[in-house]
Amino acid sequence: MITALVIIGVLIVLAMFVVGIYNKLVTLKNRFENAFSQIEVQLQRRYDLIPNLIETVKGYMKHEKETLEAVIQARNQAAGSLQAASKNPGDASAIAGLAGAEGMLGGALGRLFALSESYPDLKANQNMANLQEELSSTENKVAFSRQAFNDSVTAYNTYKQTFPPVFFAGMFGHGQDGTLLEFESKKIAEAPKVQF
Amino acid sequence: MDFFKQQDKARGLSGYLILLFGFAVLCIIISIFCLTSFAVGFERDLAALAWTLELAVISTIGTVIAVFLASAFRISWLSSGGKVVAESMGGQRLNQNTKDPLSRQVLNVVEEMAIASGTPVPPVYLMDEQGINAFAAGYSPRDAVIGVTRGCATKLNRDQLQGVMAHEFSHILNGDMRINIRLTGIIFGIVFLASIGRILTNVAYISGGRRRNGKDGGGGALVILGIGLLIIGGIGGFFGSMIRASISRQREFLADASAVQFTRNPDGIAGALKRIGGYSHGSKLQSAGAQEFSHMFFSSGISNMFATHPPLPIRIKRIDPNWKNAYPDTDKISETASQSSQLAGVSGFTGTSDNGSTSQNQPQPQTGSSGQERSHSAQTFLKNEGKIDDEKLAQVRSLIASIPANLVEQAKEPFGARCLLFALLIDNQNLEARKRQAQMIEQQAEEGTLYQTEKIEPFLSNLSCEQKLVLVEESRPAISELSINQFSVFQKLIVQLIGADESIDLFEWCLHKVIEFDFGKQHYPRQLHGRASIRSRISDCAVILGALSHYGQEGADPKPAFNQGMQALDRSGQIKLPASQDCGLSSMDKAIERLNKMSASEKRSLIDACARTIDHDGKTTDIEIQILRGIACALSCPLGPNL
User: Fold this and answer.
1) Whole-angstrom distance, CA of residue B229 vs CA of residue B51
2) What's the CATH number where A159 sits?
3) What is the pLDDT of residue B387?
4) Predicted ipTM?
């Protein structure tokens, strides 16, 4: 009788322990998946800001039509690549395409800001200052959300490789390690280079 | 620096200190048992009790109850939410729509760090103080706030400000405020024992004086008990405070190390600490309330064994071991927000600054006001081209201009905005329901709400649906200033008002979605996006497009509109148009729940497809606007007011 109770007690404790491991695995996994969507949100936000920038700049920089159009084109291409990449986050070529488009956008924006330096009226414009702050903040957010994603993937991987979760991870469908997000050309999180 | 190692070290040390604290509390209980045993030894009637288990239990329970009650009282006062703390120190809440570049930068930096640390974005308060300092307050991440001094915003560059904010986010993430509040509460409870002791000695002294002529009674025991409690409480409080201070110092090291983890930039936080060191105002605060909350701040001036913060040079050395004990001359530095050079990652500084006084009265601000910003983005992704449509922008402006000015005015402040939203839901046909709604407002909302709501209501009857939605959009910043409690009362009341006539119309549905998902997201953070694809949710997409094509085409054949939307999702022909009864509000709610698991860009594709369905007949009806609005909010892809 007592042995039976003890065995049942031990089993319950064990079960609770395993449930704890399972829950922790799920929590960690959800955390990094959410972190991934943050990256997407911030990239998208960046694309959404650019039309505002063009709108502000266009009145002052009437003679720089080409540069403005280059920015718009690069922005549209990057936005398209983001859609393609998020449909297949595992597809390396989609990610590479996104990275390339991001690089082009960065370059075009850099030219735009460099040109804007020679328009004192534009530099004094409050909207312009606000937009530059917004854009640089968004760039930071892209970088930080990627970093948060990688940190949380690492936390997940580390947890499931440690003892004792290592025994259960595979059983609970957590066999695969999360992959760190590294864009091949590293251009995605790079701020546009502005030379003065 | 190896920030992960330093974090582990600080965590381990503070765990050890918390154990020590528990041990101290145990010691206090034991010494009180000894004390009471000793004291009752002087009483003839109670002498038998001394050194028995019974007395041990009684004294333990007594002590625990006294300490517990006193600390519970203190903790409940301290944990009244970070907002109270921030306001008691004279902090001014920064509005999300601020156009002041300095405030804008602070808000952006806070948002960046919220992303880096994975916590919800807290409200930010700016304090008019010269010193460089910042604090995080609140019991849990949900009700946390962050406070920044003006000195912190003007004397630090963007990277350094980021470092300081990252430090504060570590306090939020690691629950340091909670630990501190609990320890403070327990220490208060221990010191409370000393207060009891003082009362006992006084009582004994007075009654002893009265009895001096007669026989000696229990005065002696009472005096011993009182003095003993006074000593135990005093010593306990002393050591308790010391342990608390050293725990707090460990948490500061932990936060500094986490700041490096979040920003991956040791120069930011180290630079900020150096600038404090080289600043004549240092991190001093003038506000009267500041002294009481010194432990919450980024940096403090005191350095002894009760200091809540480690000395500045030690903190800097831990982050930057090569530091040569040289402080910059911060008095001469002044940063301006939004320098163009920051975009290039260059952290320069200019000689002059006119922060806060920059032009606020720009005609037609195009950014900063989030509503208009969004309106740009909405068109651009709907049309999928980067062209800005001046015409549409002007249309939005004229739409706002066409609304009576007093209504727009109401939407701009929190009380009026709430009344306005209530008024939008007041039933003007069903008198029964109207009466019930008035009762609900009277009972649950703040005083005067009903009066104001009824005053607003007549102005709304002539507005078009589009104008109403613009008003809702305009009220967003004001609503976002509500506290979490105010918001939950507000939200509950909205739901009840909607249900008052026992049916939900499309406008009510739309407004509910806007309030629950869009306005509510700052208070009830949830997972915004999942990773599902449109392919796996195609039948739910069909419900949404079906609703738009059944109800939005003014009686025309719904099929072509539906197919046009479906084409945008690359699934033309494969999915049949659902029957109209399968596209009702409740079916849409079910579909939305599943659609929310999609990734952000898939959601945008869906919204894009909705726009195509709507555009099929070249006209945008009220029904279409409301459905699209509601869906966009529920999927966390807010649109501008012009759709």
Assistant:
1) 17
2) 1.20.1440.20
3) 36
4) 0.70
Is B385 a known active-site residue? no
Q: How far apart are CA B13 and CA B9, in angstroms?
A: 6
Cβ contact, residue pair A40, B528, below 8 Å: no
Which residues of chain B neighbour A55 with C-beta distances below 8 Å?
Answer: 366, 376, 388
Residue B384 falls in which region: left (phi positive, over 0), alpha (psi -120 to 50) or beta:
left
What one-letter code names the amino acid at B365?
A: P
Q: Which two tokens stand for residue B344?
A: 């290039």
Q: Per the CB < 8 Å rule, is A132 touching B338? A: yes
| B112 min Cα distance to partner chain A (Å) | 5
Question: What order do you get walking across the sheet with B134-137 strand by strand?
Answer: B91-93, B124-127, B145-149, B134-137
- A127 and B362 in contact by Cβ < 8 A? yes
Kindly list the residues from chain B whose CB atom is less than 8 angstroms away from the CB atom of residue A73: 386
**What's the one-letter identity of residue B609?**
A
Convert the pLDDT of each residue in A13-41 to its tens digit: 999 999 999 988 888 888 777 777 777 77
Residue B386 pLDDT > 50, yes or no?
A: no
- Residue among B141, B372, B170 nearest B269 (CA): B170
Whole-number Cα distances in Å, B580 to B351, B405, B428? 67, 40, 28
Task: Report the Cα B91 to chain-centroid distance in Å.
Answer: 15
Residue B265's closest chain A neighbor by CA?
Answer: A144
pLDDT tens profile A75-123: 888 888 887 777 665 566 776 777 788 788 888 888 888 888 788 887 7
Higher pLDDT, A130 or B347: A130
A187 occurs within a structural domain: no
Chain B hits for A82, CB-CB cut-off 8 Å, are 601
CA separation for the pair A4, A10 (Å, rounded): 10
CB contact under 8 A, B367 and A127: yes
Contact of B330 with B279, CB cutoff 8 Å? yes
**Closest chain A C-alpha to B101 CA, distance in angstroms:** 6
Annotate A20-82 with DSSP letters as a single string.
Answer: HHHHHHHHHHHHHHHHHHHHHHHHHHHHHHHHHHHHHHHTT-TT-HHHHHHHHHHHHHHHHHH
Report residue B210's pLDDT band, with 50, 70 and 90 as the boundaries. low
Q: Write out residues 44-63 of A within 8 Å (CB-CB) of B.
A: 44, 47-52, 54-56, 58
State how far the Cα of B444 lies from the Cα of B421, in Å rounded to an integer.
15
Interface test with A, best of B161, B340, B370 (most A CBs within 10 A): B340
Q: Which residue among the candidates B112, B168, B252, B624 is catalytic per the annotation?
A: B168
For residue A77, is it within any domain?
yes
Chain B closest-CA separation from residue A9 CA (Å): 29
A183 within some domain: no
Partners of residue B134 on adjacent β-strands: B148
Q: Are A140 and B107 in contact (CB under 8 A)?
A: no
Range(s) of the domain holding residue A66: 2-169
Of B111, B385, B602, the CB nearest to A76: B385
User: Stretch B258-263: mean pLDDT, rounded?
Assistant: 88
The verdict on residue A56 lying in a domain is yes
Interchain pair B340, A73: CB under 8 A? no
Task: State the total domains in chain A.
Answer: 1
pTM of the model: 0.60
Task: Give the A window 66-85 contacts with B, CB below 8 Å.
Answer: 71-73, 75-76, 79, 82-83
User: Count of CB atoms within 10 A of residue B65's CB?
Assistant: 11
For chain A positions 116-145, those within 8 Å of chain B (CB to CB) are: 116-117, 123, 126-127, 129-137, 139-141, 144-145
- For residue B119, give the 3-state DSSP assignment: coil
| Residue bearing the bigger pLDDT, B499 or B285 | B499
